Amino acid sequence: MNMVEVDGLHKRFGGFQAVEGVTFTVAAGEAFALIGPNGSGKTTTLKSIAGLVAPTSGRVLVDGIDVWRQPREAKARFSYLPQRAEFPENLTAREVVEFYCRLRRVSSGRGIEALAHVGLDGKECVSKAVGTFSGGMTQRLGIAVMLLAGAPVLILDEPTASLDPESAQWLLESMQELKEAGTTIVFSSHVISDVEMVADRAALLVNGKLIAVDRPGALDHVLRRAASPRRTITGAGNRCLKVAVHL
Amino acid sequence: MDWIIIRAIASLEFRIHTRSRWTLLFGLVFAALSLGIAYFGMITAGLVGFQNFTRTSASLLNLVIYLVPLMSLTMGALSFTTEHGAVELLFAQPVERNEILLGKVGGLFASVAVATCFGFGAAGIVISLNSDGGGMAGYAALVALTLLLAFVFLALGTMVAVIARTRTRAFGYALFTWFFFVLFYDLLVMGIAFVLKERAANVLIFLSLFGNPADMMRVSALIALGGTTIFGAAGALLVKFLGGAVAGCVLLIAALTAWGIAPLAVAGHILKKQDI
């Protein structure tokens, strides 16, 4: 059963084609990664799934529900973590999670549990203004907000980008645990080792186009193969080379 | 529409803004200026000391016309262009975009209302202790009309923010909107009326009243405070045009309400399909 279906997704911002005909599906309980260089369309694709960016054409289904036709129902099935989670500076961590608990219609106890899960349950953290948090703590709060609803699908945009190595490792392990518990995960990353650690499959995006979808190891092999016979590479292949170097 | 969601967003927005030093500053400045006007408002007539509510209300009206639109526009514009990560997180929740819009505007309005009432309240307490207390009903009407004006300019600020999308641009558009309605509009109308024939100019001036919420608030407040006596002959004619003092007030309040709803409808329409 597919939990996420992206079908012929096109997105144009003015004269810039950000995503061009991207199609893929993510099965229930699968971890799926989007990889590619900056500007390859990873974030736009994730934002389209999260109902933040309206597709120019194509459609996005979460648990069989069209994200743009039935946004409330579709969004109840997933939680989204932006690349840099931010919150009003004069709220406390407790107030933040309590607010999102109300929006997700779950008890505030779930929010406190989520804070404990991300290590922000200390008295000084719960009642401290978010404005005094470090970048890593703010991202952990974002993760708590993502987890509190217990949504069956998680969408994460470069989740380890603003975390220190220790926190990044903790998050990757948490993602593995969630996957093992049956949660469907769709995330983007620049870091191939992160992708290999968590993802069952990965999609390579280059200049808004889907180049390949495969297991991370196999995709790595594709990238290496694309990188070595440089003379035979043309068009998108050349761009693959840049991706490989970047990764 | 889910009113529980709207209330949750509104109460959070209210909490954020009542803790903001800008709202606190607005409340304190408004209170100080209100007290100053209550005390020195009749200095040109050689009177110093706390005046009654009627005189203070007439003087406060000018302060309200300048300060409340500025505060409301900037708050509306800046609230909808907060940190990008916060906006993304909120809009990815299972809530409709119109619920976010209404919740945010509701919370903002409540916080502006608290600050405004604090300012009026401080002046009101001092006036009632130091004067005969005459004109309290007019003062209350001024407070109510001020809140309506705040709602209109909050709605305009919100629309400006949704159109502008970035914080800097939204702030610039908000200042321009304030400048246009509070300072420039009357000059523009007078300039156009100057080149028209008398009858056409009269019609233009009458109709132009409905093109500017600040003017509508000013006229409705003056009608509420003193009817035709404050206006003089031109005002009496205007009130007659409007169908009498009560009908005129009702018409202007209805028009002001429409001025508040229309920008929200436009903002909601744009926001519905806008990329976040």
Relative strand content of chain A: 25-35%
Distance between the termini of chain A: 31 Å
Q: Work out the helix count of chain B.
A: 12
Low-confidence stretches of chain A: 227-247
CATH class of the largest domain in chain A: Alpha Beta
CATH architecture of the largest domain in chain A: 3-Layer(aba) Sandwich
Low-confidence stretches of chain B: none
Number of domains of chain B: 1
What does this protein look like?
The complex is a heterodimer of chains A (247) and B (276). Chain A is α/β, with parallel strands linked by helices. Chain A has two domains: 2-77 and 152-246, Rossmann fold; 84-150, no CATH class. Chain A has ten helices and ten strands. In chain A, the strands form two sheets. Chain A has a six-stranded mixed sheet with strand order 6-7-8-3-9-10, sandwiched between helices. A four-stranded antiparallel sheet of chain A has the order 2-1-4-5. The longest helix of chain A is centred in the last third of the chain and has 16 residues, at 165-180. Chain B is mostly helical. Chain B has one domain. Chain B has twelve helices and no strands. The longest helix of chain B has 34 residues, at 97-130. The model of chain B has no long low-confidence stretch (mean pLDDT 89). The A-B interface holds A 13, 47, 50-54, 71-76, 78-88, 90-91, 95, 99-100, 102-104, 142, 145, 155 and B 4-5, 8-9, 12, 15-16, 19-20, 82-86, 88-89, 91-96, 273-276.
